[in-house]
Specification:
Layout lengths: L1 H17 L5 H13 L1 H75 L3 E8 L2 E8 L2 E8 L6 E6 L4 E6 L4 E4 L18 H9 L3 E8 L2 E8 L2 E6 L5 E6 L2 E9 L16 E2 L4
Helix pairs in contact: 1-2, 1-3, 3-4
Length: about 270
Amino acid sequence: MKEKKECKVVQDLLPNYIEGLTTKETNEFIEEHLKECKECQNVLKNMKDELTINKQKRDGREVDYIKKYNKKMKIWKKLILIVLVLLAIYAISVVYKLSILNKIAEKNEESKNLRNYYYYSITNDTLMECFKKDGIIKMNVRQARGNGNITFWKDSNTGEQLIFWNETKLYDKAEGGILESTPASMFASPDSTANIMMAIHPLVFIGTQKYNDIECYNIKFNTVYEVISKDKGLLLYSNEENNMRNIQYKFNTVTDDDVAKPNLSEYTLNNKN
């Protein structure tokens, strides 16, 4: 009976004995008992085997957890790297687009001050040619089918402005209806805020190309596609929902005869107004 009680005490102490938590005196007591007790030896062996198995399982779970954690971290690192690369590309794109839009606006403002130029514009339904020299502008407009031949004439120096209907030979004083500057691109804005908003828009694409042997920028936004000359910021081609426009320019070739006021004796003043 004494041995059974001693076995019970020893077996209760064995877990701490295995973990090295018992005192020297307790260790001596346990080891003396184990020398003579096969049952407690078996209990000790089973405990050690179970601890080994549990440790292996625990170590395996820890290894699996570490592997999964490292795998997740690698995925997150890749995702973060991709995001950072995309943000860097986007930032570079914004700076690039903004610099080009500012250049176009600057060049276009310079072109508005040109005193001598000619341009020819053709759209799906309208033909237009415009002459400008020293503040005098003469613009001929007609439909692509050849009808509706109209001439606008303006002397910006005196403010006189006339409109001539060449088919009916009528003329009248006009207000508006004549462009005093070159055709404007929707992307040639002098408003810096508008350019910033356009530059950060992800659907605005800007590239380069040659158009009629002229170095140009091409800009696409939604349904709008434009080609703009690099040297003067002038619109050369536009296409919006299949409404195409081609423009050709000449500079410093306009003469006084080109911008001369039409001979009023050949027209009758329109009295309808």
